[in-house]
Fold this protein.
Amino acid sequence: NAGVMQNPRHLVRRRGQEARLRCSPMKGHSHVYWYRQLPEEGLKFMVYLQKENIIDESGMPKERFSAEFPKEGPSILRIQQVVRGDSAAYFCASSPGTERQAFFGQGTRLTVV
Amino acid sequence: QKEVEQDPGPLSVPEGAIVSLNCTYSNSAFQYFMWYRQYSRKGPELLMYTYSSGNKEDGRFTAQVDKSSKYISLFIRDSQPSDSATYLCAMNDGGSQGNLIFGKGTKLSVKP
């Protein structure tokens, strides 16, 4: 049973480009969570999705950031017009249900140059 | 005041020592408490999961929750060099288990 799979593991983008981060949850998990970890900072919740629905996006920046979890395929975190401050590690976690513990992937490290 | 406070360390101990890691929090609604271990450039790995107050033991690890003091601890007995990592406390109020409030993490180094 593969764990939470994130790709790419490393992503370099120039300022103004778009970044697309993908997350495939564990088999049987329909709940996905995205977190951001800035250098020397703890993990910060961004968004919680179920298939085809955004449940809680209270941690998402109001502009340039969006997330989806389509019926088929991985969850996508999309960052438009990236800026240097977007450089961070982005982690995805999945769980089989709201009341169950979430398991984290290995993260995507985004560097904006 | 931040919701969750955690001493960032770094903490350096000799092999075999007992390690004590702590977090304090301000939200009295928190009732689920977790400790994660994160190796450098890896994802967080769930170590301990506790509900409400009390102790929970798993091998060399013991988690304690004192809700009256809003204080949680993780003890590591007979520490090993392989325990060297950053330890993150996390908690929530019982809503979605994936929507967690994390501490900044304590970096632990266990010297052989």
Summary: Chain B is about 0% helix and 55% strand.
